Automatic annotation (TrEMBL):
Xref: Pfam families: TrkA_N
Protein name in UniProt: NAD-binding protein
Keyword Membrane attributed: yes
Residues covered by the RCK N-terminal domain: 260-375
Domain of life of the native organism: Bacteria
Keywords: Membrane, Transmembrane, Transmembrane helix
SUPFAM superfamilies per UniProt: NAD(P)-binding Rossmann-fold domains
The keyword Transmembrane helix is assigned to this record: yes
Stored InterPro entries: NAD(P)-bd_dom_sf, RCK_N, Trk_Ktr_HKT_K-transport
Stretches that traverse the bilayer: 6-27, 39-59, 65-91
Amino acid sequence: MRPIPIRAIAAIGIFVTAVLALQSGVILSAEDAGVSRSILVDCYYALSLFVIGGIDIGTPQSGPAWAVALLWLSYFAAPILAVSTVLDLFLRMFTQHRWRLRRLRNHVIIDGDDELTRSYLRHLRQIDPKRQVVVLQGAGFSDTSREQLRRSFGALTWEGDLIDAFTFDQLRVKHAAKILLFSNYSLKNYETVKAMLDRRQDLAGKIVMHVDRLRFMRSMSSSRIAQSVTVFNGYQSAAESLVTTLAVPHVRQSGVPMGVVIAGFGRFGQSVLESLQNALPDEIAAVALIEHDAERRVMVTREQFSISTNFELKILQGDMTHPGVWEDLDGFWDRNSPNTLFVFATHREEDNLRSALWLRRHNPNAWVFARISRYSSFAQEVADDHDIIAMGLSQLIERSFPQSWIDCSMEGTAELIPPGS
């Protein structure tokens, strides 16, 4: 049972004292002599003492000395208590946030507020519901977003930039267990990491940095900063999760070489191909890539990693929604085989889901995956009804979070690589 606040006890005491004094026969200057008051009137008068600028009931004029003294005491105590309560409320509103920040230790700092941040927080709260978390948000984020983070995940929010020394100190970064840079601004993330490591080199093993652009991430992989911290790409993590948790068990169970059709060869599609050939180098017999500018994208892909020669590769230039593209696929691989994996990987989630349903109707034995942006109970229901797999990138990424990112008691031990090494 929670104790009664001291202010509540004081307010009750002042109210009872005033009523007692008024009932004892104290005459007020604003009322006519000889007029009797009921207990309800005296209670109303006593309550009005707490309201600044309230009803003018007059001052004590006559009556028992002790009652007059008590009433005068109530006259001063009631408004003082009311004012102090209001001031305390405002002070709490403005200082509680900073007070909690001053007590931060072994906490998690997340720079960025998007679906990746929320996926991480959902996963973290399942394992560690009490871990202190601070989410950095830009000036464009609304109060509603901040309130959602507070209510859903118990997270503090801060508007600022970790590059800034003031924010760095206020968030007690040196005492943090993990610093996760989940912003989609790739270059800024590198700059932020450099600024933090310039201040404290021992943070290197605690920092996880998201780089939105795969080509940029690979280009920066040899940099001193990239080699000092953990760097990842969301599309790559989602693709690895898809391959390791779904494709690999399916292929290993069947024991038969598989054909793969990737419709949409952007960042996610390219990552799926890379993950497949790394995880199943000998089990993939044929791969078909469908994209409206597939040849250019294949050239870009080959700049980043070598496409394996262990499987037959077919490049189909065109939109996956065009029936003619699928006619060109006939004769290359049996589309109706249970050992055929179709991955609809474009950023157009409606087209992915619709195309997956169309393919399922014409190829009831194939294995079909449709990418959506985030979890959708409607898409999940439709997928279950038609025996396809529809998963959001955020779901796949959430599955791929390493335990070391969640178990914040595991302090990093990496050190900053010196310049020029």
